[in-house]
Amino acid sequence: MNPEQAHFIVICSDSVGETAEAVVRATLRQFESPNTEIKRVMNVRTEDEISAVMDEVHQRGGFVAYTLVQPELREAIREEAVRLNVRAVDIMGPMMQAFIDTFKDTPKRLPGLLHRLDEDYFRRVEAVEFAVNNDDGKDVGAILKADLVLLGVSRVSKTPLSIFLAHKGFKTMNYPVVPELAPPTQLREVCSSKLVGLTIDAEQLVNIRAERLKSLGLPDQAHYASLDRVRQELAYALDLYESLGCPIIDITGKAIEETAVFVMKQIRQR
User: Record-annotated residues binding ADP (predicted)?
Assistant: First the structure.
């Protein structure tokens, strides 16, 4: 393959392909391959569609990642892969087979079950709306209504973490911790297990704030991004967390997804 040619990956699904694409993109992060084209082929229902997909992949020298629950379609894509010498990665099949073998159960084999408009879906929609409406402590009264309250100084990823957790169905709000502002009384009125304090390495936070100031066209040497100020804020925040008795999570070097795992673990333990 020409090194300058774009890598080509097809997501083939009998639903929307979101699961397979998430796996593919997580894999891509492990490689220095910026020139990669990902194409989704959704709602596949026939073997002719499978053949067309595999022919295109063969011509362009890529591979296929697929989530197909119908046995005949999975068999068709395997046969085409052998015929055309194309790599096809079954994202869902091995997991389904493990479930069958271990629990002696039979799958429904209905495409798109993950995206049915059920109670869980509407709960997640409500949680996302709650997170957006209560970002950055807009309404301190929402502390009493939230499933989870994230506390932290500026630029510790409170907002993206709130939205991520909301997509998992948790009504999450975040509140900014600032030494000059007294914390709202509502924080002491809720169970401490609903609160999560976020902290971070001081030097990393300085760099994050400096980049933020640059993006706004402001001097990166402002007091906001000074090491002394950052250390003061983090020390104040830790004192607050301890007084509230809430769990503390250090997000240094962690992706949002990693931090969310720790947060959800705290939720399950309470």
Answer: 152-159
- Residue 153, annotated ligand binder? yes
Per-residue pLDDT tens digits for 136-181: 998 999 999 999 999 999 999 999 999 999 988 999 999 999 999 9
> What SS3 class is residue 252?
coil
- Residue pointed to by tokens 């798109």: 112
**CB-based contact 24:13 (threshold 8 Å):** no
Residue with tokens 């998430």: 22
C-alpha 79, offset from chain centre: 34
**Residue 69 marked as a ligand binder:** no
d(CA 48, CA 44): 9
Contact 16, 112 (CB under 8 A): yes
Q: Which of 61, 67, 22 is nearest to 41 (CA)?
A: 67
| Residue 157 known to bind ligand | yes
Provide the whole-model pTM.
Answer: 0.63
pLDDT of the residue at 100: 82
Residue 53: Cβ-neighbour burial (10 angstroms; 0-12, 13-18, 19+):
buried
Name beta bridge partners: 89: 65
Reduced to 3 states (helix: H, G, I; strand: E, B; else coil), residue 253 is coil
CA distance 219 to 148: 35
Q: Is 39 annotated as a binding residue?
A: no
H/E segment holding residue 214? helix 202-215
Alpha-carbon distance of 93 to 68, in angstroms, equals: 8
Q: Is 261 one of the annotated binding-site residues?
A: no
Q: Is 254 annotated as a binding residue?
A: no
For residues 188 and 149, what is the distance between their CA atoms, to the nearest angstrom? 12
